[in-house]
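User: I want to check something. If I give you two sequences, will you return the structure for each one separately, not as a complex?

Assistant: Yes, each is folded on its own. Here is the first sequence with its structure:
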Amino acid sequence: MLKEIHTILSLTLGVPPKPDDEITWEYKDKFGNFHSIKTTPKKFYKKHLGFDAENYFSLINDPRNTPGLYTVDKLGNIEGGKPIEYVNTSSTNLKKAAINAIKNNEPVFFGSDVGKFEDTKIGLLDVDSWDYKLGFGTAINLTKKQRLASGSSAMTHAMVLTGVHIVDGKPVRWKVENSWGEYGEHKGYFVMSDKWFDEYVFQVVTNETYIEDKTLVEYWKNKDYKVLPYYDPMGALA
């Protein structure tokens, strides 16, 4: 199947270059100026990307499981690549790492259940957007743990945290850059309430410099994995 997929991609997009093949990278900067660079994929990664993926791993908030390092069976998407690494911890620790990165002018990849309490038109993620108790006489009372256990919630979409509003030392709302391009008056950006973060954010990608509880770093470095089954909701996104 991989061979067939490679053939389809090569026919439609062109044969992908080998790591040391010369390529021409053309782009426009934020001022609209055109640039052209002759390089190789490996040199482009090292010189222009400025991102060392080896130093990054995921923090997750999975209340079904105890703190520690997790991976998901068959989730790796690169043959021979490093496994998916999830350090399970509290939602508070996810927020602290994200805030520290944002303060350092670094956006934060995160995974969430985007369809819950989400208004695409106005760009809002907030658990108080709809009052089910008022409308139907009943509230949605499942906890985050219960939603994961019952299959009613999972990581379904990746976006980027680009800002946070802090009041008296605590986050109140977050600025989210969606990956569906510019659309609507909000130009593809969402406002996410901190309550929504608690309920529907499951993952943030970070490195050890942004983590305040160094026990979490030790979990990651010790490589003592607990393996979740391939159908686990933590494996829905990667």
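And separately, the second sequence with its own structure:
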Amino acid sequence: MLTIEGLTKRYPTGDLALDKVDLAVPAGQVMALIGPSGAGKSTLIRCVNRLVEPSSGRVMLDGIELTSLGSGALRRARRKMGMIFQEYALVERLTVMENVLSGRLGYVGFWASWFRRFPRKDVEEAFRLLDRVGLAHMADKRADALSGGQRQRVGIVRALMQDPKLLLVDEPTASLDPKTSRQIMRLIVELCAERGLAAIINIHDVALAQQFAKRIVGLRAGRIVFDGTAEALGADQLTAIYGEEDWSQTIRKADEEEEESAEVVA
């Protein structure tokens, strides 16, 4: 379980990005994090794995207080936190397989990683996961030859290669078309269910959040203003998160997509 207590981040400029956030995410739960730009969503995710250092508060993963770890212990703890980035963060000149295996860098020695000599079991797991996301046939392709959706799938597999307990997902669909966005969100949710992973997904698309996440947390000005189910996220709650607006089209869009998905399954 991920537990966040009193998490605060104030930047040197004086800007308050997070204001005493309390949050708990149990194993296996996929949680969508929504809110306007500047609400603190990306900062929250990056404070969890300490890519951004919190100003105060505590972050604990399975009882280990991440916010108190030294550099060596933090590197080991980060093995259990897979990060999926908006802009994929792939090395474009490397192949799909090489990018995927980079997810094991926290487990192999320096020289093994330098010469890209990974254990056979790691290579076999990489092929298995690439097959799971439909990219086994592209293992030897360079990353810069892939589409946006394919790159994001590679990023997902790389994160899973860490054998994480928690996925931190930062705007995974921001650069994708609507169909591919739904496919990527569906894939993340399915993989979390298959592997019992907790996930925090920072996402701007409210309809996608409603469609794929059972729990939604809304941030505004660094504070949690909504924490509930997708069904409980109505016009009043969206107004509390984003401000006054006619939200009927947003909610209807989510309902229609759910109906379309049910029709496809049927």
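Because they were folded independently, the notes below concern the second chain alone. The two ends are 35 Å apart (CA to CA). The chain is about 40% helix and 20% strand.
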